[in-house]
Predict the 3D structure of the following.
Amino acid sequence: MSSARDNILGRLRANRPHAAPTPPVYAKPLGWDRERCITEFMTRMQAVRGETHRVARDDWPAWINRELPPRGIHRGLIGRGAVAEKLAAAAADEFTLTRYDHAIDDWKGVLFRDIDFSVTGTLAGLAESGSLVLWPSPDEPRLMSLVPPLHIALLDAGRMFENFAALLAAENWSARMPTNALLVSGPSKTADIEQTLAYGIHGPKALIVLILE
Amino acid sequence: MNQTQAFHRRIDAALHNDQLRRNFRSALSGIQAKRETQFPDDTQLQSLREQARMVRANALVRQPELLEQLEARLTANGIQVHWAETPQQANTIIGDILQAAGARSVVKGKSMVSEETELNHYLEQLGIEVVESDLGEFIIQLAQEPPSHIVAPAIHKNRREVAELFHRFYPDIPYTEDIDQLTQSARLILREKFAAADAGISGVNFAVAETGTLCLVENEGNGRLSTTAPRVHIAITGVEKVVERLSDVPPLLEILTKSATGQPITTYFNMISRPRQPGELDGPEAVHLVLLDNGRSRIRVDEELLDTLRCIRCGTCINYCPVYVQLGGHAYGTVYPGPIGIALEPQRIGIDKVGTLTSACTMCGACGEVCPVKIPLPKLINRLRAEAVNEQRTTTPLLGRGSLRKPSEATIWKLWQQMYSRPRLYRLFTLVATRLRWLTPGSLGGWTRYRSAPRPAPRSLRELAMKEGFGSE
């Protein structure tokens, strides 16, 4: 369809509007310190039914051991790398952990049916919108934070940014975009029936953020 | 039946459908308030609107270069780029990709551009199963109806109608009118589809030229699933969706989600730059982008009308439109309803086809005030009205320009112009009109269907003023 391409670009070039100024790079500095960022993040996340807990940096496996079994949640999905190894080493006996260590193509059905929760790290948190930033990787693939009904996300308290614009600027994203980058702000939801909010449509029904301090 | 008669017939049907009007009124009632809570500070809102306007305006000026850059970056990233001038070309491209990949089943994320091409219909003819996975789109696919709103496609249906649809198609699921339970039913039905689909099709909210990134905004996770779980992902979008830099995205994302749904951000913002890379364990092995023109490049002929293409499809103008609230989306008869539809569709399709849409506007100005990218919608609609009755019947700058001009109407306005620019003639006219007011016809076409005919006063204002001793200045 190269002719379609040439025709479209030709028409666009033939009708060139007057130059418009290049907009300045958008920034919205809020002057929030780390504590303010954490509390704003938690408020926003809770407002969309995201669960948030502040836990000591090394205590999150213990939190999982303590909190999940009473909720009847046992079948976990872990990736590879530090987070996975830590949970694998510390997980209580009632958990069965599946490792996401080979390509999805031949076990999609298991992932969709036989997993209750997943645990992943995150790249950062955004305070103003209450968002987690994820860069899925071979160690923590894309579907991990999407298919299991419960997603547990570990967020380093030292990785809070005021907003998306601040993060993009601070970490020079444009030079190093990954295959997939995500902002996740709560469990999945819809308002497609009568504009009434309902949670847990296609993505996780629940999202728990453990803020590690 | 000409386009105006057909439009009036649809309007009539919509206005006499009490259930439909109740559904729209109740669904739209809170939507404005929700948006307004997201913008407590008007100064901040106005500066964000200006930023968003500049981002989109800049992208349109540099559109050919940005599209080439986008294509180069995507290609370097391993995403295949296809160009389509017409809906038929776009459908053929997508059908060919799916057939070459041996894909028999497709899950779709929401895409209004695919509504332009009637993609589902085309693919079904090829024997490919297409399942809409956005809850609203899923509902109207069952009902075999087009979307009635660009963001909330099933807004015209109430929970009982949804419950009946689900019951008809999935009789094994117990009947319920509870919205949470209906949502869970859709989850169960569609999870099987996501797990089994060979390919996913999605739209695009912003395509970033600088990095070769496709951005998708959504709440449900169906967009992420459609673009991640199957082995092939095909994105389709209009050529105007390109933006220059990654740093242009945060202001657009913020104003889009706040305007469209009254949320500070949607649940998911999904940025896709590559297909599955060696060592990665999921994601589609092939990603395609189809760039569709379908009349868009023609809109650039006129600098004023170009503003139409700044649109980021948030639907806010629709939510604030007093005409849309009464009519709903289907009455417009076009893919895009409401103010943006009135401005866009006659330009895209031709005034001779859908120019009569411009009559569905009260010029109240609400759409122009809330548009996040400051599209002067009332001005555009007014311009289109004038172009529709232009003396010259030409195809530039607008397809079907002058095609709605009626000789009788033109003559009346000519006479009006003569009379109102000649004081003596005007005085003679008011004298005759006031003295012979009993001759006013009682039936004046559409006007007197629902209203009484206007009748001139016994004395003109000028006469009364003279009587009170005012001079002629």
Q: What stands out?
A: Residues 422-467 of chain B form one domain.
